[in-house]
Amino acid sequence: MVANREQIARAAIRRLNADPVASMAEIAESAGVSRATLHRHFASREELMTELGRESVGSWRRVLDDAGIDEAAALGTPEALNAALDSLCHHWIRDVEEYGFALTETAAYGQDDLLVAVEEQHARENAFYAAAQKAGVLRADMPEVWIGHLAFGLLVGLREALRRGDIAVRDAERLLRESFLRGCAA
Amino acid sequence: MVANREQIARAAIRRLNADPVASMAEIAESAGVSRATLHRHFASREELMTELGRESVGSWRRVLDDAGIDEAAALGTPEALNAALDSLCHHWIRDVEEYGFALTETAAYGQDDLLVAVEEQHARENAFYAAAQKAGVLRADMPEVWIGHLAFGLLVGLREALRRGDIAVRDAERLLRESFLRGCAA
DNA sequence: ATCGTTTGAGACAGTCTTGTTTCAAAACGA
DNA sequence: TCGTTTTGAAACAAGACTGTCTCAAACGAT
Prior knowledge:
Two copies of one chain form a homodimer.
Chain A: H1 5-18, H2 24-30, H3 35-41, H4 45-67, H5 69-75, H6 78-98, H7 101-104, H8 112-134, H9 144-163, H10 169-182
Helix pairs in contact in A: 1-2, 4-6, 4-8, 5-6, 5-8, 6-9, 6-10, 8-9, 9-10
Chain A binds a DNA duplex through residues 1, 3, 23-25, 33-37, 39-40, 43-45.
């Protein structure tokens, strides 16, 4: 049994995705490791949760970075904003599978610096949506903060659909983008 | 202190919306009642959860009833289906505020009859979406089961937006319907 | 084969939660 | 006012989870 700290963290995320209140013993079992070993890598449950939250927020930040939303918002051209939107949907997919647990787990956000980081990403996203509205890429008759919640909700629904096997992974990106931008009316 | 069973249940829902893992003591406190009194009304945590789940599913069923989705699906005309869709969005709003906790709480679904009831409502919804697709009211290039998850995710996002005070209650229905049917692209 | 490290199993105390019980005080209705 | 009912506070046992510790077995490199 390799007992890499990172591998344990990944297993913990998988487990907590399926069962958000899993005990340390259950997490250890999912990681194929004893409870003692789990505690050797993460001294406490809080330490584990904080690390998962940190990675999760980092992953979120990376999505926004990779999609280039700041640059697109600064440019303000419809082409750049549309490209960033597409890219956003693309990168969200990998995020929802890896760190989707953070979508509904606010328990990990006990640390102040984490809260700050979360607010930072929110602000980035909102600025991007506002720029897209101003450029006529997104509808201006919705608060930009609602668009953020809309995206969040879509990702929760997407994660659930994937978890239950109701949709195929290869369809996820298209369904997300189409639902997000165009809705489901014919 | 009035200690109506129903009032306690409502307070419990509010509390569990804010903190899904609240203890019985915390729930009792939120209801303005002692732990002993809480246990007088609900012998066990499981009994409380089951009742909340039951009411939640009942409320969901009522939404589908009030929106008349079965009749609309049976008729199959675009007019009836569109009207039912609008009605659905309208009734979802009151649901998300009252029983939204069930959206992300599957813990209450331990009882077999509850699971059966949940599956029943899912089947009704899916049949309705399929009929709407067939009639050209909803896009046919999405699995009807995805549309159900999409609606679920939107309600989760809506609940979160309301909880954080990011959108006004009076805007909720419009934002939900517009996002659901048309998306947020300009 | 040997030495040093890592691991798993188990025991342990401390804490929290649950559900029950008791008893006195408060609220209530006649 | 009096008697009944409801309530809150407290104590309690039982169980679960956490975090720590010990020790023997497994492992890996030399």
